[in-house]
Design brief:
Elements: H1 3-11, H2 14-29, H3 35-51, H4 56-84, H5 93-97, E1 101-103, E2 112-117, E3 120-125, E4 134-141, E5 144-149
Parallel strand pairs: 3-5
Antiparallel strand pairs: 1-4, 2-3, 4-5
Helix pairs in contact: 2-3, 3-4
């Protein structure tokens, strides 16, 4: 009997816990959330193997089944989280401006103007307004903010 076989035999069901924790540790080093689901499946098999006496062949089959279930459920969960996340407009700075209000430093004339937002200047389009008018961003058209005066 080799050293690895002897170690597996001596540890029994705890080998699943050790493998699961190693997979969870590997998840920290690898990008994404792939090893997480396999680690959780291994820990679940280890818990069942501690509670219920079962042959090693059944443990391997259970690990495969639990892994597939965990990966599918995890992907569905992550997909749902991605859609509802707070960072939905992370790479769309203009989309994050919709609904915000600003004060015009320069007038909008001929339907075009600009407004200072934090440390940058944005092009705006809307009805003509004098400087000092409070405006609200209603939409984004490319890199131009479509604005309306507040109160209209």
């Amino acid at each position: 009997m080799t050293m690895i076989e002897r170690l597996v035999m001596e540890l029994g069901p705890w080998i699943w816990w050790i493998g699961g924790l190693l997979l969870l540790g590997l998840e920290v080093l690898a990008p994404g959330t792939f090893f997480l689901w396999f680690g959780l499946a291994a820990i679940l098999v280890g818990t069942l193997a501690i509670l219920i006496e079962m042959p090693w062949q059944l443990e391997i089959v259970l690990f495969g089944v639990f892994s597939v279930i965990a990966v599918v459920a995890g992907r569905m969960y992550m997909r749902r989280q991605g859609k509802e996340g707070d960072e939905a407009g992370l790479n769309q700075r203009g989309a994050r401006m919709v609904g915000r209000e600003f004060v015009l430093a320069a007038p909008i004339s001929g339907g075009q103007g600009s407004v200072r937002v934090d440390d940058s200047v944005w092009r705006v389009s809307g009805i003509d307004c004098p400087a000092g008018t409070r405006i609200r961003v209603a939409a984004v058209d490319g890199s131009t903010l479509v604005v309306t005066p507040v109160g209209e």
